[in-house]
Amino acid sequence: xxxxxxxxxEDSEDDNYVSDSSDxxxxxxxxxxxxxxxxxxxxxxxxxxxxxxxxRLHKRDNFTPMSFGMQRIHNNAAPEPVWVQTQNARWMQGTxxxxxxxxxxxxxxxxxxxxxxxxxxxxxxxxSRATGQVFLxxxxxxxxxxxxxxxxxxxxxxxxxxxxxxxxxxxxxxxxTAADTHWHRLLTTDQYVERGMVDADYSELPAEHRHKAKMxxxxxxxxxxxEELANECALCGxxxxxxxxxxxxxxxxxxxxxEGWKDPRLGFCDPIFDGVNYDAGKSxxxxxxxxxxxxxxxxxx
Length: 301
Description:
By secondary structure, the protein is mostly beta strands.
């Protein structure tokens, strides 16, 4: 979905122009999209497009959001490259690098001697040495390593390779997961890229993080398999928590409930006790209480 800039309105030659429409039509509210019978998810207007490296429109630009804000991830191999083009830059990212093309630099300025390119841990700057005209400037979304980041020009493009610092995965104050390496925008002034439009690439994470993610996935699958075996019906082979009705007529049989069936975050609630806060108490309350002691003498008769 591309954002087409509105045409500039020309100044009217007659400042006293009066519309021919009636007063009733002037008071009408502007027409809106009729979504009463539509299930289409309306996305907010965006000022970026998804393109190829050469600027051609990418098929992913016509995007249908995934449910629950989900995003495809790639742990074993890099996904198909998708570039995000904004007003001043065209960029794509991997696990450890962000490649930026400053597409607003004029062709006659694409020489290293004519450009002033500065890379800082949280800032990027591209300008003309002669005129001082700024082609790209802003604060980066996350930190980079300027010592290992590079830039070059081949006469047709000015390309910067920014090496991610990826300090988030080592920060104890954050989640420390692979998702922390994915940037949702290039500059802090840019609009966030809609979640799921660009696949996340985790194929170049450090070995310890890839091993941790793999072990977590294996543990999750094994736990799921054990639960399915424990709740498998011996008669029909289906899950007794959801699909089995073999003993639905047995009054003495209590059907097991799914895990977390009373968890309100999953949408389950008991209307009778809705809003009631339970006090589970402590184990010390089950211990016998000591015998009451006589009160001390307070004087008097």
